[in-house]
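User: Fold this one for me? It's PCI domain-containing protein.
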Amino acid sequence: MADTPDSVSIFAEGTFEEQILDLLSYLAKGRSDEERAVFVAPFQNALRSGEGKKPIEEDGPRRKLILSKLLPEVKGLGDGSDKVAEAEGFFNLVFAHIFSLHPQDSPEAKRYISVILQTISSTDRVAARYRILSNLFNTIPRSSPLRLSVYQTILRLATTTGDLEVLELKKSEVERWLSEWDIPTEEKSAFIKSIVDAYAQAEQLTKSYDYSLSYVQSLPASSAARESATLELIATALRLPTVFNFDPLFKLDAVLSVKDHELFSLLQIFLNSGLPEFKAWESSHPGALEKYQITPSELERKIRLLTLASLAFKHVGQSLPYSRIAEALQVDSSEVEKWVIDGTSSGQAIPQIY
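Assistant: Here's what I get for PCI domain-containing protein.
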């Protein structure tokens, strides 16, 4: 999703009256001429500047009243016969009027945008709703809390429809948004957690884990969720067959704060020790792996591959015999080549063997 504030086209010219009539014309699509006239008449009367009234362009309260009467009539993204660009232009103009009449942090703006987000969420016009929501996100000032509400809607829609890849979400982008948005720390953490859950639901577990690191880091020491989230993060790192680098975990204060927990001692084995230490830990902690839904055989595979990588690091530029590798991995020499191939496919550094 593009993030280019102040780049949204409005697709409308003319006076306030002309623009309101354009919006009404769009809303009245599909009605008979008689129904259209009845629908538009109250707005035309409100727009007239009779004797004793200020011109509509100079009458802020009247413009606000007219907009407040028009917005409840926005009940979808058109009748389905219009093009995406028409729906996009309509909502761009609606957003422009909301923010020209009400500060973006005002209760009115928040209420109107909240209702519109619900309206857009209920439509099945996928392409149109992403375009409209992206435009709204880009229209709102970078520091506004409204940006959070809009992107939460986008994320929910993408999660529901399996369109997460459409968002092209980048961690650096999310971190920048969170540094800009004027929202409480708790809301920032909740937003990151929603991304964690979205990728988990989409079975993109490596991406989910990557955002879990940020989520745990965002939780203050006083948070009731911190310890359980930290333990789940450690369990996920051990559980995922693609995670071999545990250094990022030890850089988190939250992880260091659970140093007395059994999972922390297991994590240390994967950072500094080998298969004998893992098997000793497993024997002394019966039922622990099952409790955290960690498969012992997967951990054995992972620690063997880490041992293989460690051997490669210690013997850079040297050759290693099958027998030395087999001894370190606690496997038969005939299985060494299989482990080397597995290590290569997992991205681990592999020694030269003979």
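One thing worth pointing out: Residues 1-168 form one domain.
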